[in-house]
Amino acid sequence: MTFQTGVTRSLEARYYTDSDIFLKEKKGLLTKTWQFAGHQSQVENTGDFFTFEIAGENLFCIKDKSGDIRVYYNVCQHRAHELVQGKGNCKIIVCPYHAWSYELEGGLRNGPNINSVPGFERGDICLNEVRAELFHGFIFVNLDEDARPMDDWFPGAREEILDFVPHIQALKPLEWVEVPENCNWKVSIENYSECYHCALNHPTFAKGVIDPSTYDIQPQGGYCLRHTTLCQNLDAMTYEIDLESNKHAGDYSSWFLWPMFSFQVYPGNILNTYHWRVVDVDKVVVWRGWYSFDGAEDKVVRQLAIQDCQTTVAEDIRLVESVQRGMGSRGYNPGPLVVDPACGVNSEHSIKVLQQWMREGLETRGET
């Protein structure tokens, strides 16, 4: 992609503080993009389920009798009571309000006294299903029934991630860290999507994991931002890696899948993820995921999870919350982005692309 030269100014503060803009995103953008639901290991057995929320909609994921993973709106088709809570296992789905029951495949099974209703056709009633895809064992959903497949949105990402983590199907979550941030979701996403601030604010990451001089972020087809860099000198690394274990063992790479998920591979082919869940115009929850073979205890992965939480995560909370406060100041005027035609770590070309997606997202209206 060729970037235009000249000054590009950042988005106005209202994009991050205006409740009406947030509502438009919630009803439009967030209902028509691929959002992370969970991992297939959460529904290993027939009848396993878990609930989650996307764009204010209460949903649940369940494995049916054929072994397929399905996602439904969490609402009974009788009088709208929520069907399930939290996580668990069930042979049939039973509404706790009036005991209407549904097969795992979504069709109505039975309900008290429904046979007494003239003309009642149980075959006409079923749970409303949500579009879902498996992406290397990660479950994504899109509330738009006509949405293009994930591979159209993020071309090449599936194959590249497998090249970096060929054992990805054998991985399960070792730890998920929940990180509440008092900021607009876009502030957090922007902070993640540039490393212009890394050397000053993330010394452990910049000196003990990656080599900032080689860091770059580039758009990759569709709606993916690809982060690439080499690892730090081995004698400076905060953990041991075996450069002979994989051709990418000495690389760091990240695939940010717009709007709220990122696969990261740390040097040593260690998979970790970010996913964002919006709460309100000035609140977002970031989940950091760390993975190991079969979810078994792994000393290096556990060390990295702790290190990351105590350094990069804690440092980023301070940064994004300060930015959000600044967005509310009458003294702020949108500043120029540092868009270096040569790109590199000290350039905000990725933010220019990201903010264009944000503008486009406001044009994506919908009443799902």
Question: Could you list some keywords that capture this structure?
Answer:
368 residues, alpha+beta, Naphthalene 1,2-dioxygenase Alpha Subunit, Chain A, domain 1, Rieske Iron-sulfur Protein, 7-stranded antiparallel beta sheet, 9 helices, 19 strands, 24% helix
Poorly predicted parts = none
Helix content: 10-25%
CATH homolog superfamily of the largest domain: Naphthalene 1,2-dioxygenase Alpha Subunit, Chain A, domain 1
- How much of the residues is beta strand, in percent? 25-35%
Mean pLDDT, to the nearest integer, reads 94
Describe the structure concisely.
By secondary structure, the chain is an alpha+beta fold. It contains nine helices and 19 strands.
Description:
It is a single chain. The chain has 368 residues and is α+β, with helices and mostly antiparallel strands. It contains 9 helices and 19 strands. It has a 7-stranded antiparallel beta sheet, with no helix packed on it. The chain has a 7-stranded antiparallel beta sheet with strand order 12-18-17-16-15-14-13, sandwiched between helices. A hairpin with a 5-residue loop joins strand 4 (57-63) and strand 5 (69-73). The mean pLDDT is 94.
